[in-house]
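Let's practice the habit of predicting before peeking. Look at the sequence and jot down your guess about where helices and strands might fall. Then scroll down.
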Amino acid sequence: MQQIFNFIIRNSNRLLFLLLLGISLALTIQSHSYHRSRVISSANFLSGGVYEKINRVNEYLNLRTENEELVLENARLKSLLFNKEDTTKLPPPDTIKGVKPADIIVSKVIHNSYNTHENFITLNSGANDGIKPDMGVINSLGIIGIIDNTSPRYATVVSILNMKSHINAKLKKSNHFGSLTWDGKSTGFVQLEDVPRLASIRKGDTIVTGGQSVIFPEGINIGTVDKISTKANTSSYVINVKLFNDMTNLGHVYIIKSRDREELINLENKKKNE
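Done guessing? Here is the structure:
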């Protein structure tokens, strides 16, 4: 202990300098948006590289399990294929639009946090792949989150298991909307708030994206109704939603790139400025 004190006394000037330097850098980053964005981008780049190497090791260790799951899935798909009549019909030429309303960018989760109140996911794709903030992220089972920041080769995602996340969602069987949030308790459940009491809701009903935003198209799966309660002093429900996704076990994901996004935002901004 005495040696530690002696070291601090001998190097007090250097330690004070480093402390003041750290404080000045922190204040500079906090007060200037350009410096803050550059630091975030650099942090994404560095952490993304580390996460990707860790993910490669985990992938190698899990190859046997993944191969067994692929074999079972292939067997199930082949069984469906062999027992299904071919009813596929090509659409008539006048119904082919040529341009879809959204592009899909395939990426992979290399880091996933789910044990804090503000969870984030890191992907091994970034700005070089066309990914931008505020794009929606989904997989084959449902929604995952929304792109937050990007670096050239990586991107971070605000998970739906983030208490600051708010996503427009609705009952699949009707047009009763609400705001999808997370109470920070269970990784398997989120909450759909502000659904009017006029809505007819039953346990097991499907919850999907509402489509009232430019982030997610309408009708993407989220989960099923598990529990219904009333919000105090309001005329609305709070619905506990059991997620289709296991948010603790994510692999490949799809980023939704809406071609209509900029047009819709510009139109809404024009209306606000009138």
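How did you do? The chain has two domains: 2-61, 100-259.
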